[in-house]
Amino acid sequence: MLCPFCSYDNIEGVDSCNRCNVDLSDMQGLADASDIERDLLDRPLSQLASVSYVEVGPSDTVRATVSKWGKDGFHCALIVSDGSLAGIFTERDLLFKLANDFETLADQPISTFMTPNPETLTHDAPVAFALNKMMVGGYRHIPIVQGEKLVGMVSVRDILGYMVDRFGDVLSAVSSK
Amino acid sequence: MTLRDNLTNDAVETLRQLDPTELSSRGTVGEAIALMQDRNEGYVVITEDARPVGMLTERDILRKVLPEKLPFDTPVAELMTSSPVVVSEDDSVAHIIGTMHAGGFRHVPVVDAGGRLKSVVSVKRIVEYLVDHFPNAVFNLPPKPGQVQAAREGA
User: Fold this and answer.
1) For residue A79, what are the domain limits?
2) Is B135 within 8 Å of A94 when comparing Cβ atoms?
3) Cβ distance of A36 and B7 shorter than 8 Å
4) ipTM at complex level
5) What pTM, to 2 d.p., does this model score?
6) Within this chain, do residues A26 and A108 fall inside the same structural domain, yes or no?
7) pLDDT digits (tens, 9 = 90+) for B81-131
8) What proportions of chain B, in percent to the nearest 5, are helix, strand and coil?
C-alpha cells in the first residue's frame, strides 16, 4: 500500500507508514474507492479554482463592494490589504449583518463587516480537501493561495460543476433512481 | 460501496435533511428575512396547503429588495420564484446534485408522493455526504509533503 503522503510502498495492512510514521490505519477504505474519490484526491485545486473574483481594499465601502458583484457573477469579495488576504465578505454577511439597515450601513468600510483571516488552501491541495474544509467550517468559498499570494477562489458550485462535467454519466439531473 | 455506486443507489433519505424553513404565500418579505436570520438559513420555502409554491432565497433579497429599496411589507408572492424545482423522497443523490447544478440551486425542497413539503436538502448536506466517502486519514495528513514525525506517537 502506497503511503499517500511520502509514497513509500508499505506491505498491505500496516497501521502506519514504515518510512514516515504517518497513521494509515484508516486508509484501507480508500483501497476500494471508485474513480470519483480518486479523482477528487488527485486533482489539485489550481485546476478548477476561479481566477476571476472580486477583490477590494479594507477601506472600500460595502456599497462599492456589492456594486462590483454584478448581476450574475460572484457573490463573495476578498479583501486584500498590502498584497495579502485580510478577509472575506459574502452574500450571507450582507444579509445577516446589513439587510435590516442597508442604506445606513452601506457607506461604512467593508472591513467592519468582513470575516477576517478566512481559511485558505494552497493551490496544490486536492479538491477533496476543499470539500472537507467547507463541511467543517460551513463555508461556500475558499480562497486559494500560493505561498502568501492570493491566486484564486474555489466555491462549492465550482466543485459540483467540475464533478458534473467530469462524471456526467452518474451525475445528471435525469438519473433518477 | 464506492462513491460512484452510492451516488445512484442512495436516495434523498440517506442525506441529513433540514426541517424546512417555510412561510405561507400570504407572508411578507420582512417576515421572510426575519425567518432567515432567525434560523440562520438562506432560503424560505413558500407554501400553500403544505405544498411548495415558491422559493425565496437570500439572493432574491440581495438582488431585488435591497437595491430597489422595496418595503419589507411587500408580499413574498411578488418576489418568490414560482413553481420551484422539487425532488421526491426516492430520487437519488446523483439526481439532486445534477438538479442543483443545472439550476444553480443551493436548496431543493423534497416532497412526498402527494406533493407536500417534507424537507429541504441543502448543498451543505451534499458536501457532507461526499466528505463521508473519504477516510478521515486523508484530511489529517500533515500539511507539508515529506514532513516526517520524529518518533512514533507515545514513544
Assistant:
1) 45-166
2) no
3) yes
4) 0.81
5) 0.82
6) no
7) 999 999 999 999 999 999 999 998 999 999 999 999 999 999 999 999 999
8) 40, 25, 40
